[in-house]
Specification:
With about 140 residues, this protein is an all-alpha fold. The protein has one domain. The chain is about 75% helix and about 0% strand. Helix 2 packs across helix 3. The termini are far apart. Pfam families: GerE.
């Protein structure tokens, strides 16, 4: 693509996105810009994908910067905390907590529980379900 067609493409993308952000329908955009609705959708998807990639890249950069700042602050307070400075110890613990959150290390662990023993309560529930005409999972299989 030459510079002239690149400029025209960017101008068309800008026009489409401005109308899209302004809540115009794809039909309205297509008529105004002089392209098909399919092309409008392609342009919107292409621009959104490009913006998503830029946002992800910016987010990664911001995360790296924040982690670097935490590491520098941690270095300042860690030695003092180990030597008994209570305030520095608190700062280090808060920094460690923040770092864990940023890295997603504080996410809950999903656990699957299977009950292998039946009780009288299970029998009573099954009997009640039978009375109501509801099949239990065991009966369905």
């Amino acid at each position: 693509m030459g510079r002239r067609s690149d400029a025209a493409t960017l101008e068309r993308e800008h026009a489409v996105m401005a109308m899209f952000i302004g809540c115009a329908t794809t039909d309205q955009i297509a008529q105004k810009v002089g392209i098909s609705q399919g092309t409008v959708n392609v342009i919107i998807n292409r621009v959104m994908k490009r913006r998503r990639a830029e946002r992800d890249e910016l987010g990664d950069f911001a995360l790296e910067q924040m982690l670097d700042q935490i590491d520098r602050l941690m270095g300042t307070h860690y030695v003092k905390g180990v030597k008994g400075d209570a305030r520095s110890s608190e700062v280090v613990l808060k920094l460690m907590d923040r770092k864990a959150k940023l890295l997603g290390l504080d996410q809950p662990t999903q656990t699957e529980v299977r009950i292998t023993q039946r009780s009288e309560l299970d029998d009573a529930i099954e009997e009640l379900l039978g009375t109501l005409g509801v099949q239990t999972p065991e009966q369905v299989q």
